[in-house]
Amino acid sequence: MKADLLIKNGLVVFPKEGVRNVHIGITDGLISGIYSSDEEIESNEVLDASGLHIFPGLVDTHEHLGIYNSVEADFLDTKQHAIGGVTTIVNYDRQVESYLDFFPKVQEIGEKNSYIDFTYSLGILTEQHIDELEETVERFGLTSFKFFRNYERQLNDKFKINNGIDLSSYDLMRLLEKLKSISPKLLLAIHCENMDINRKLISKYENEGQDNGLKTWSLTSPGYAEAESLLSTLYLNSIVDGNVYIVHLTSAASVDILEKMPWLIEKGVKVETCAHYLCLTEDSSVGLNAKVGPPIHTMHDSDRLWEGIKQGWINAIGTDHVPNSLKTKYSKGEGVFDALYGFPSVGSLLPIMISEGFVKRGLPLERIAEITSYQPAESFNLPSKGRIEVGADADFALVDLTKKKVVSPQLMYSHSDYSVFDGFEAVGWPVYTISRGEIIVKDGQPIKENGRGKFIKRLI
Ligand SMILES: [Zn+2]
User: Fold this and answer.
1) 118 and 31: one domain?
2) 31 shares its domain with 109
């Protein structure tokens, strides 16, 4: 059979397995064959990938499009994802209204404007959300949801709603049970942070007038506050035998839990960290631009997170990408307690991981592919994404490991005026990005129109 496109002579990075010099055939947007380099394959088009490493397209399952800008504006800004090799995202949203009413609206906006493929994880906030779970799963093909331990007993005050659930340990248990009863494939993403400790410490330091930038921010949520919440979450999950994904791990204390209690993470548990916890510290010159919850801590914490990746206790990297501008970030003031949470960061994920992980720390390329594509896809029930095998979607990032560029909003075509990695010199930029067999980035430039991205309906 004649392939539509043949990618020849590249060094293909197979997640977990290793790097091999093979040709990849693509037909109808899918990988149709993987051939040894001496085989002659017929194709309509050939892409010579000599000198390039071919990664699976990145799957970023931790995004927050539509928080500070309209959903439409943030989907229009997904060319920057493609420039960085990200071909699939799972976006978080949370609303008080029924998701049966809400979701079709954002799905339509995404389909009209996204440059890359997408789906959603929805935050469970109300009794109605729980009652309508099964219908939400079946009607929209949504199979991942989010639980905020950081808003425990706070919804009705914070969001001024009167039907919010407590987000207590009891709610966590009944939600895990409910998800499992619908399908074991359903996933609960969980923010672990003991907010009793966090809120008291914020009040304490704020009352004392302490403002030492990220250092003060780090003190408001010490590693033990995350580790305690992580421990209780993993323990409760082990009782239910549920399927959980711990988002954005930040601390050495939490890595200690994963290391010392392997029985808690043996089954049904995936753990994510983010590039900013690996590569920035409370001393970084980026300052409060990198204010985020939970906070960035110390070099020791970063070192332990890298160790967690090496040892396999941490399985996935997300970006926690929050598109905003500096003006928005500091709209309430410039003090540590005024700056808003979150920052943009997505487009530089792969070059940062290659530069800081592979070049600096010897993390194998196949492990980087595994934690940035395969494991996120596997965790979030995206069987056609994040892998290089016959039948999978032909999504790739073709990377030049020698090309050095400095991260900047201009480079990323981002609508935001900053990212926390601005000024980072990184190698490993995609020369081409391919999505479902279509070249969407060439020589680092987006070459297609918005609206080509597809909503991915997930099956249970
Ligand atoms: Zn987040």
Assistant:
1) no
2) no
Rg (CA), the chain: 21
Residues 61 and 35 occupy one common structural domain:
no
How close is the Cα of 64 to the center of ligand 1, in Å? 7
Residue 430, domain CATH: 2.30.40.10
Say yes or no: 15 and 83 in one domain: no
The angle, 0 to 180 degrees and rounded to 10, between the axes of the packed helices 223-240 and 195-208 is 170
pLDDT tens digits for 50-83? 999 999 999 999 999 999 999 999 999 999 999 9
Residue 453 lies in a domain: no
335 to each of 62, 214, 332, 422, how far by Cα in Å?
27, 10, 9, 21
Q: How far is the CA of 246 from the centre of ligand 1 (A)?
A: 11
Domain presence at residue 385: no
What distance, in Å, lies between the first and last C-alpha atoms of the chain?
32
Full residue range of the structural domain in which residue 344 is found: 57-379
pTM of the model: 0.97
Q: What's the gap in Å between 276 CA and the centre of ligand 1?
A: 12
Contact between residue 142 and residue 202 where contact means Cβ atoms under 8 Å apart: no
Phi and psi torsions of 105, nearest 5°:
-65, -50
Residues 224 and 318 in one domain: yes
Calculate how far, in angstroms, residue 343's C-alpha sits from the geometric centre of ligand 1.
10
CB atoms within 10 A of CB 437: 20
